Amino acid sequence: MSESDKEKQKIYYPLPELAENARIKSMDQYREMWKKSVENPREFWAEEAKMVDWFEPYKEVWTGSTPEDFVGKWFVGGKLNVCYNCVDRWVEKGYGDAKSLIWMGEDDTLKEFTFSELKDAVSKTANALKSLGIKKGDRVCLWLPMVSELAITMLACARIGAIHSIVFGGFSAESVKDRIDDSQCKVLVVADQVMRAGRPRPMKDNLKGIIETCPSIEHVAVVKVTGDENVYKYEKDVDFTALVAEQSTECPCEPMDAEDPLFILYTSGTTGKPKGVVHTTAGYLVYGMSTNKYVWDYSCLIDLKGDTVEGRDVWYCTADIGWITGHTQIIYSPLALGAKTVMYEGVPTWPHKGRFWEICEKLGVTHFYTAPTAIRALMKYGEEPVNKFDLSKLKMLGTVGEVCNWPEWKWYWEVVGKGTTGEKPVGRPIVDSYWQTETGSYMMVNLGAITPMKPGSCTFPFFGINPVLLDEDGNKVTKSMTQAYFAYDMPWPGLMRTVWGDHERFVKTYLTKFPGHYFTGDYAQIDDDGYYFILGRSDDVIKVSGHRLGSAEVEAAINSHEAVAESAVCPYPHPVKGSTIFAYVTLMTGVEPTEELKKEIQKHVRTTAGPAVYPEIIMFSDALPKTRSGKIMRRVLKAIATQSDIGNTMTLANPEVVQHLIDERKKLGEIKF
Ligand code: PRX
Q1: Ligand 1 binding pocket includes 534 (Cβ within 6 Å)
Q2: Residue 316 bridge partners (DSSP)
Q3: Residue range(s) defining the domain that contains residue 577
Q4: Which among 98, 226, 472, 542 counts the fewest CB atoms within 10 Å?
Q5: 450 CB less than 6 Å from ligand 1?
């Protein structure tokens, strides 16, 4: 075994002082609590739900009848408001002057909202939405960069019971349209422009010719980020910045039913059409709060843990709010716990490579949460950009979105966390949180203060979560280090409730492959010590920089180019992004396969589907390997792309195409990034 392999297989321990003041102090305590939580989930979740301020108490914790009943309802009969829990209650409890959301701009502008200021800003925005005709149950689409207005508008929606549907800024205007049409949004809130690496870039301009084709949209509410007057104007435009400014700060919080939808967030699946994942009010809130409280153990207004109100820990999650991580981990859970939460406008590498660490020093960040892809991007620049800044306030680090592999794990541990190596390595813990848009918050995760870590493992289940490994026939796989399908065998409050407008799709996608289980779509394995390792997707979902893309979506974008007859995509290993997109493209008869055409197709996809969907490698091919039923054999495509063993091709209808593809792949040679 090499030195590196030995190091990788060691157990890493969190700094012992973290356990002393932790909410859960030992692994024995965790194990005992976990056992109780899965044996009697109603009791466990009733206890956690006490963190919420209810307008009316709920009557029943959960209406399911068997543990496998995933469609039961949570906290039935309860009335509450998420915005009230995130904002107003802290003001009412006398913490109006305490800091809540700390927003930092690319140009270092700092907006440190106290809970009172946040309440006023949210109330004014909520009144502005109301003045545009938005009421409880209406859908509002938010397509905004990481400006403070995004956080405030989502809270404003929650305040009045409107359902927000946030679309990631890196998606195209076409994707915005699809999402607006699917959930029939009445208002689109959009920025005039985006600031990226010091330069204004178009945002609203991209909607030209598209927003006019969204019949449900009554108003386009424009947030002035740059205030550029030359930005394209639509008939339905409203100057949202001005409208908000003239509103009153009085706006009551709408009492919502526990099971009323809080938001829709579209995510990719195996078909071309993204799914509108619906999260509800009470279950999502309770689950997000509970996970954040125990996993990160930060001091917050729910429990100051001996800190002063001003001395509370500082939480910084670097995700974009356009993804579930931003929803749950920047806004809803930390604010509901009464934490200080940082939101940063820009990218990690501008104006310099140490921007994240500079923010940590400047804002006194104690808990830092990012994605492996960001760590890989930063480790290229070595230690110097990190060492320039004082990171001594940091207590815990964390990752999300994909496996944190050994090289980046080691760098994070040693360079950022200043963890020790040697016989028994000790340092700032790296929380490896495994979860999904659908699950609301963490499912498999280490409790930062106490769980011994194994690099690359998301360790153990959170409370109330019972993971199972299954074979193709649904039998439990108990043998260690054996790849299996990863599922859960009982529901939890934060689970999505439905796919917007298509409940059958929800049941079919998640609850049908293994009846009585929620199936994640991932492969996983367990080791002899009970540590879980996620092995990646078992379906056609591709993760690029931790972002989830459906193969069919990317293919639809490629196929919409007039020269393309057919295409198929697969993931290809990338040193920073984890995976990038490798596309096989068959051209229309008579079209010349040129390098220019490749670039044109890439450009076409970038504009129609968005930069997030960019097919970085294109290979022209005369045909694609298909089964007799016409299904593309992706396993073969992946193997050809990575020049690895292709395996059995007996079931192919056109095996002769394989050699052609292998030859074409050879011509591409080594792919450099
Ligand atoms: O494949 C798993 C991977 O990301 C998928 C969920 O993607 P998304 O809904 O976009 O949510 C990402 C942020 C919550 C999972 O099915 N994944 C997420 N976290 C991890 C992970 N894979 C390995 N380790 C993780 N910690």
Answers
A1: yes
A2: 342, 368
A3: 541-668
A4: 472
A5: no
